[in-house]
Amino acid sequence: MKIALIGASGFVGGAVLKEAASRGHKVTAIVRKPEKVAKLDGVDAVKADITDADALNAAIAGSDVVVSAFNGGWGDPEIYDKHFAGSKAIAAAATAAGKRIVVIGGAGSLEIGGKQLVDGPEFPAEYKDGARAARDALADLRGQAGLEWSFVSPAIHLAPGKRTGQFRLGGDQPVFDADGKSHISVEDLAVAIVDEAEAPQHTGRRFTAGY
C-alpha cells in the first residue's frame, strides 16, 4: 500500500513507520523536520505543516490511506488548541482528498464505569489538556459526514518494549490483562494500527489494544 503517515518522527509515529516499512508498504512520512525521520526502505520524508492545507493536500494525494500520529506538543501551554485545530485540519484534508484515515489518539477518552479517564482525579494534570483535545477530536470525527475513519486509543500504559503481535482489541473501554493492568508496547500498538490501515475493521468507530 501507499501510506501517508503524519507525525512519523514521534514516539508512536516512529513505531508505525518501522512497522509499515517492514511490511513492504511505501510510506510518505509527513513531518515538520524530515531529518528526524528514520532512514528506511520505501520511506519518503516530506516536509509539511498540517496548518498549510495546500501542502498537506499535496502530501497525501497519492496515498491509499492516511495514518495520523499528530500531536499538538506535550508541554506546550497551547496544546489543546493546537491539537484540536490540527486534528480538524487533517480530517478536512482527508475528506477533501477522499482518503480513508486512521487517527491515533490517547487513552484519556477510554471509559471505565461510564466515565472517561481524563475526567478522573487520578489523571495526570500535565497530560490533561492534550487528552481533552484528543477526546474532542474523536467527538468531532463521530460527527463527520463523508469521511471513512477509524480512531485508535492505546492501553492506559504505553511504553517501549517488544513486538509480539499478541494482544487483544477492545472498544470504548480499556483492555485489562489477568492482573488487572491495561498496557501495551508501542511496537505492538503499531502492529494494531497498521493492521487497521491494511484491512479496516473499525470504520466509524474507536478501538483500543492491550494485553
Topology:
Blueprint: E1 2-6, H1 11-22, E2 26-31, E3 43-47, H2 53-60, E4 65-68, H3 79-97, E5 100-104, E6 111-112, E7 115-116, H4 125-142, E8 149-153, E9 157-159, E10 168-170, E11 183-185, H5 186-198, E12 205-210
Parallel strand pairs: 1-2, 1-4, 2-3, 4-5, 5-8, 8-12, 9-11
Antiparallel strand pairs: 6-7, 10-12
Walk me through this protein's architecture:
The chain is α/β, with parallel strands linked by helices. Helix content is about 35%, strand content about 25%. The strands form 3 sheets. Strands 3-2-1-4-5-8-12-10 form an 8-stranded mixed β-sheet, sandwiched between helices. A two-stranded antiparallel ribbon has the order 6-7. The chain is globular, with a radius of gyration of 16 Å.
Features:
211 residues; alpha/beta; 8-stranded mixed beta sheet; two-stranded antiparallel sheet; 5 helices; 12 strands
Describe what is shown at a glance.
With 211 residues, the chain is α/β, with parallel strands linked by helices. The chain has helices at residues 11-22, 53-60, 79-97, 125-142, 186-198; strands at 2-6, 26-31, 43-47, 65-68, 100-104, 111-112, 115-116, 149-153, 157-159, 168-170, 183-185, 205-210.
Q: Kindly state the percentage of residues in helix.
A: 25-40%
Q: Approximately what portion of the residues adopt beta-strand conformation?
A: 15-25%
Number of strands: 12
- Coarse structural class: alpha/beta
User: Which descriptor suits the 3D outline?
Assistant: globular
Average pLDDT rating: 96
If strands are numbered along the chain, what order do they take across the biggest sheet?
Answer: 3-2-1-4-5-8-12-10
Largest sheet: 8 strands, mixed
What is the radius of gyration computed over CA atoms, rounded to a whole number of angstroms? 16 Å
SSE string: EHEEHEHEEEHEEEEHE
Poorly predicted runs: none
The number of helical elements comes to 5
Our measurement of the CA-to-CA distance between the termini, rounded to an integer number of angstroms, reads: 28 Å
